[in-house]
Every structure is written in structure tokens, then in C-alpha cells.
Write a structure and sequence with these properties.
Length: 380
């Protein structure tokens, strides 16, 4: 006999929620920012010329200069995500080549182009991780991540695994340094993907959300954001982590116990929303966690792309499978406000200097992973 609940508790009122750690906030960036370009014509960057993690090296390259509508950012912290790994392994056709990956980062503005308004040297910023045209039907409707001619920043352009990065100014967002570098460098990809997925599900307060891969990059934010949105949250993880309770989960269970836990929490009605970024390994099973009218949110395929679905179970219970990717700029701004007013936490497992970028990319798939992998780009 084993106990199928690893952790279970009743919903906590918002007022009792733990605030995120503020350890890093006392001196998050140097008070004096150097702006002397003449001394900085070269920079260190993670560069690969052929696909493969083994081909990524730290190279001295010419520092980029911002065009009239661009911003030069001194990268302080970067999040490492599956999209970076897919970029490095060539699955996403990176351009230009040789290429600097890195879709998610936070830093300090070093220089702005002549036509940039509202952003100044010394501002603390994060990237909106999409390159977009601003003119197509998708961009005009506010869905920049679906731009007809755009793509992922760091894949269709050089990214943030470098001391300096140039970003179009429409993809630069000013933030409050007091949130701490680890959280700031988790908002553009990890948190935004989870937030957009939950928003797309139409989640309402009082509903039940099951998060598959809850201790992963997006999973930890799906747990926190679903909780903040007023949902009951079942966090599902191969290695159930107690820290997910601190993030707002009502139950943290291993996959073998999830069905029973969701049934018990919902009186048999099952989940309204299941967030599953894992793909073929779990998708059919995740559909079984849903109650009638439920929605499966898919924004990743970490375990494979092909899924066999019994369509009868889809139509007869009016199940929806909702694909989402990234999020909008408007949602990123909302997310920053949520992080400031309600608190979000980025659980970091390992933090490497830029020189250890290969290890960081490899650690993403480690079975021991217990939180995020970050690059402390400022570290020498
Ligand atoms: Zn567009």
C-alpha cells in the first residue's frame, strides 16, 4: 500500500500566499552602468556554426550596433528553454548562421537607436520573444506570435546568450528591477507561455486545472498563475516536489495517482482544464483527466509529436484541444503587473556562466532537474 497523495491541502486564501524571495533585489544591477562603446567593440557570445549542442562555443565576436529602431541590451540573466535546444540542434532552422541562441533574457539598456522612444540607457528590460512585422492580419489583431512573417527571437534572429543583444524596440519591455533577475528572465518564455495557455482556456475562478510536467519551466508558472486566477490546481510531476505547494498547488501527485486525485478533488467531475506541454507521452492520458466540456491546452511536445486520439471521447463529451504558442505583448504586460502585485517565483535549479552554456542546454533534459536552468551572463 502507498499513499497516493504526496501533498494535499485546502485552497489557501490569497492573503496567505507566500511572497516570492526577494533575496536578489537589494543590489540587482550595478549602480553605475558603463556606456562607453569605444571600449566594447567585441563581446563574448555563445555561437554555433553547425547544428548540435557540441558545436556551441564561446566566441569573441563584434558587438552588435542598434539600428534606428533597435535597442542594445547588456544581458544579465537568460532562461534556458526547450526552444533554445531546438534552435541549437537545428530543428528550427536558425538564421542567421553562425547563430547566437537565447529566446528569453533580461538586462540593462546600453544604447538605443535614433528613432526609439520611451526606452533609455540604464533601463531594466526584458525581451518579448518574437520578431513580428506589426502590419499583417495576425499582428493587427494583437497576436504577434502568429505573425505571418515573424518567428521566435533567438531563432529567426540572434538571441540573448551573449553579453550584448540587439532587439527591435517594439520587442523590448521595461520592467521593475525589484522582481529579481531570475524571475525577470523567466517572464518572456516560461511564464508567458503558461499564462497565454491558461487565458486561451477561458479558465474561470473555482474551476479545476491539472498541470502535467508541473515542475518544468512552464509548469511551475502554470501552477502559480492558475492559482492566482482562482482555480484549484493539481500539480502532476514524475518526482512530486514540495515546493509546488508553496507555489499554490492544492495537490502535488505523481502521474499514477493523478486520476484519483483529480476525481476526489472534483467529486468525480474531473478537470476543467489540463495543461500538457509533453505531447505524445501523455496527451491521450491527459484527455482522460478532463471532465465534460474540458479543455486540453497543448504548447509543447517534449516527449514526441504524434498522438492517437479516440475522437468519440472528444465529441461525445465536448472536449476541446487548444493549441497555444508563446503569448501576446499585451499578455506579457499583464504578466509583469501580476508579478508585481501578486508575486511570482522562479524556482532555479542550476545557474551557469555563459562559458557553461553547453552544460546548461544538456541539463534541460536531466532526470534530476528540480527547477529552472539559468545563464548568469554577467558572470565572468
Ligand atoms: Zn505580422
Amino acid at each position: 500500500m502507498h499513499t497516493y497523495y504526496v501533498y494535499l491541502r485546502r485552497v489557501k486564501p490569497i492573503s496567505e500566499l507566500p511572497r516570492p524571495s526577494r533575496r536578489e533585489t537589494s543590489a540587482p544591477y550595478p549602480r553605475k552602468v558603463k556606456h562607453t562603446r569605444s571600449l566594447e567593440q567585441r563581446m563574448k557570445a555563445a555561437v554555433f556554426g553547425r547544428p548540435g549542442i557540441e558545436n556551441v562555443g564561446i566566441v569573441d565576436v563584434d558587438a552588435p550596433s542598434p539600428g534606428p529602431h533597435e535597442v542594445l541590451i547588456r544581458v544579465v540573466r537568460a532562461g534556458v528553454n526547450p526552444v533554445d535546444r531546438l534552435t541549437v540542434t537545428g530543428a528550427r532552422n536558425p538564421t542567421p548562421m553562425p547563430h547566437i541562441p537565447g529566446a528569453e533574457f533580461a538586462g540593462i539598456v546600453e544604447e538605443v537607436g535614433a528613432h526609439v522612444d520611451g526606452i533609455s540607457r540604464g533601463d531594466i528590460v526584458i525581451d518579448y520573444p518574437r520578431v513580428f512585422c506589426g502590419r499583417c492580419d495576425m499582428c493587427i489583431s494583437g497576436r504577434e506570435m502568429l505573425c505571418r512573417t515573424g518567428g521566435v527571437l533567438g531563432t529567426v534572429s540572434n538571441g540573448g546568450f551573449a553579453e550584448l543583444a540587439v532587439v527591435p524596440y517594439v520587442s523590448v519591455v521595461k520592467v521593475d528591477a525589484s522582481l529579481g533577475w531570475d524571475l525577470l528572465a523567466s517572464l518572456p518564455v516560461s511564464a508567458l507561455t503558461a499564462y497565454h495557455g491558461l487565458r486561451s482556456s477561458g479558465l474561470r475562478a473555482g474551476q479545476t486545472v491539472a498541470v502535467v510536467g508541473a515542475s518544468g519551466n512552464t509548469g511551475m508558472f502554470a501552477v502559480q498563475l492558475a492559482h492566482i486566477m482562482g482555480a484549484r490546481v493539481v500539480a502532476i510531476s514524475r518526482k512530486p516536489r514540495g515546493w509546488l505547494m508553496d507555489m499554490g498547488a492544492d495537490a502535488v501527485v505523481e502521474p499514477g495517482s493523478a486520476m484519483r486525485a483529480v476525481a476526489e478533488l472534483t467529486g468525480g467531475a474531473m478537470a476543467d482544464v489540463v495543461v500538457d506541454p509533453l505531447g505524445s507521452g501523455t496527451a491521450s492520458w491527459s484527455l482522460g483527466l478532463l471532465g465534460s466540456g474540458g479543455k486540453l491546452i497543448s504548447y509543447g511536445v517534449l516527449t514526441g509529436q504524434e498522438v492517437q486520439v479516440d475522437m468519440r471521447t472528444i465529441y461525445s463529451r465536448e472536449i476541446s484541444i487548444v493549441g497555444t504558442t508563446g503569448g501576446t505583448r499585451a499578455e506579457l504586460v499583464e504578466l509583469i503587473a501580476i508579478a508585481s502585485s501578486r508575486g511570482l517565483d522562479a524556482r532555479v535549479w542550476r545557474k551557469y556562466g555563459l562559458g557553461d552554456v553547453r552544460r546548461a542546454l544538456e541539463d534541460l533534459s536531466s532526470g534530476e532537474r528540480d527547477g529552472r536552468v539559468m545563464l548568469d551572463v554577467g558572470r565572468r
